[in-house]
Amino acid sequence: MLFRGDASGECLAKRIHGRQLTMPPAQGEYPLGTSQIRTGTFTLMTQLTPARAMTAPALPDHAPVFLAPRGTTRPWYDLSTVDPMSLTYDDVLLAPQPQTEVESRRRVDTSVPFGPWRLDLPVVTAPMDTIVGDDMLALFEELGGCTFWPRCDDPVAVAVAHRVRFGPGVRCAYSIGLGDRPESTIELARALADAGVRMILIDIAHGGQARLVRTLGALQSHPDLAEVVFVTGNIATASQARSYLEPEPVAAYVRVGVGSGGLCTTRLIAGTGVGQLSAIFDVAGTGLPVIADGGVRHPGDVAKALAAGSQVVMIGSLLAGTDETPGEVIDDGHGPRKFVRGQASFSYMIDNQIAVDKHRAPEGEAGFVPVKGSARTILTQVSGGLRSAMSYTGAANLAEFRRRAVFTLVSNATLFENQPHIFRR
Predict the structure, then answer these.
(1) Could you tell me which of 389, 373, 368, 371 has the C-alpha nearest to residue 313?
(2) What are the respective helix, strand and coil percentages of the chain, to the nearest 5?
(3) Per mean pLDDT, which range of 23-27, 112-116, 283-287 is the poorest?
(4) N or C: fewer beta carbons within 10 Å in the chain?
(5) Is the pLDDT at 110 greater than 90, yes or no?
(6) Domain ranges of the chain
C-alpha cells in the first residue's frame, strides 16, 4: 500500500522502501515544517525545503497515475515529493481497466511518429557495436522499428553505404561524440546531413553537461542542419531535461536512463543513477520527448515504459545473442554463444584506444551469452505484449495508452507471483 489516510483524512502516510513518511495532502500548497522518517532504528527529522513548499506543478495530459485506496487514483507527481523514491519496471504493474471498448489486440495501433519517420513498432536499437549491424538494421527496417548505429571511425561512409543498400528512406540514426570544439561536431554533422542522414545522436554518457547543451543549440540553429533531427542524452531527472528546454528547445528527443542497462555498471562504479521508471516519469513530465533507454528485461517492460510517457523504447541487451547481432558463434563446450559488451566496458575501451587510468574507469561489462535464435522472435513478443497491454487498458493507440494507463505498486510477494511459479516451488 502506497497511501494510507489517517482518521481525519488530512494527511497521507507514504511507505517507501520500508520507510514511513507522514506529510500533508499531496495536492496544493506544501507548508514548511518537519517530517519524521522512521528507518527502524532511529527517527530522522528532516526540514521540508522551499522547493517542496511550492504549489504542486500542473500535470501534463499523459501524467501517469497510480492506484490509491478506495478505488481512487493519484498522479505520479503526488508521489514524487520525496526524492528517495526511485521506481523500476519491476516495482509496478499496469492495472486492467473497466468497460474498455477495444475488443481485440489486433485492433490497436502501435505506430508512433518518430522524427522524420513513422514507426510501426515503437522500438529502437541501442547504439552498441555487438548488437547493431547490417542484419539487425535490415530486420528493424522490415518490422517497422528504427536502428541507432553505434559510433565508428567513418559514420559518413557507413551512411552512404546504407542508402545504397536500403534506399534513401532508411530508418537509421547515426551516433557521433561530443568533440573538443563545437566546430568539429558541427562539421561532422554537416557531412552526415550531406550524405542524407535525417537523425543524429550525440552519444555521451552524461547528458547534463552544459557544453552539450551549448553544442546542441549551435547545431539546431545552423542553416545547413535544419532538416536534421537531433537526439541527445543520457539524462535521468526533470532538472536535466529542463536545461534542454529553456530558454528554447535544443533537442528533439532525449535518451533517458543512467545505469539501468543490462551491461552497465555505472551504479556500482559511480554510485549514480535513478530507477528507470521514475526517470521516465520525471523527464516525460517536462514535455521533452523521451527515448527510454535501459532496464528492459521482459517484453512487458516495453509496455510499461511507453505507458509511463516515453515515445519509443531503446533495447540492447535484450537482443544479445540473436542471429542478427554481429560476431561469430563460438562453442567451447558450454554451448553456442556470442560475444556482447557494453560501450563503456574495458573491452570496448581497449579496442577503441580509450585510456583507462585514475581519471576513467570502465562502467560496463563484456562476456558471452547463449545463442537465442532470431531477434524476430523477441520483437514479435514485444509487439504482441504491447498490443495485449493496450487492450487491457482499453487504448486504441499509444496516445490513449498513456492517458488511460494506471500503475499499481507491487510487493516482493507480487514479484514472485508474477512468475510462472508452479515450476519454482
Answers:
(1) 389
(2) 30, 25, 45
(3) 23-27
(4) C
(5) yes
(6) 3-86, 106-407
| Cα–Cα distance, 116 to 321 (Å, whole number) | 30
Burial of 70 (0-12, 13-18, 19+ CB in 10 A): exposed
**Largest alpha-carbon pair distance within the chain?**
70
DSSP 8-state class, residue 52: G
Please give the pLDDT value at position 342: 86
Choose among 260, 193, 198, 259: nearest CA to 231. 198
pLDDT digits (tens, 9 = 90+) for 148-158: 999 999 999 99
Which cell numbers hold the place of 108?
A: 490497436
Model confidence at 59: pLDDT above 70: no
318-360: pLDDT as tens digits: 999 999 999 999 998 889 999 989 887 778 778 777 767 767 7
Catalytic residue numbers read: 264, 266
Residue 70 is predicted with a pLDDT of 60
pLDDT classification of 47: cutoffs 50, 70, 90: very low
Provide DSSP, 298-356: SHHHHHHHHHHT-SEEEESGGGTTBTTSSS--B-SSS-SEEEEE-TTBHHHHHHTT---
Mean pLDDT of 3-15: 30
d(CA 413, CA 217): 48
Question: Cβ atoms within 10 A of the Cβ of 92, count?
Answer: 21
Q: Which three cell numbers stand for residue 12?
A: 497521507
Please indicate whether residue 11 or residue 90 has the higher confidence score (pLDDT).
90
In this predicted structure, the answer to whether residue 364 has a pLDDT above a threshold of 90 is no
Length of the chain: 425
User: What is d(CA 121, CA 112) in angstroms, rounded to the nearest whole number?
Assistant: 8
3-state SS class at 419: coil
Q: Any idea what DSSP says for residue 50?
A: G
Q: What's the whole-model pTM score?
A: 0.81
Local structure of 172: helix, strand or coil: strand
Distance of CA 224 to the CA centre of its chain: 30
Asked whether the beta carbons of 24 and 8 are under 8 A apart, the reply is no
Handedness of CA 207, 209, 212, 213 (dihedral sign): positive
Q: Which CATH architecture has domain 106-407?
A: Alpha-Beta Barrel (3.20)
3-state SS class at 92: strand
Q: Are 275 and 91 within 8 A, CB to CB?
A: yes
Closest CA to 88 of 281, 244, 217: 281
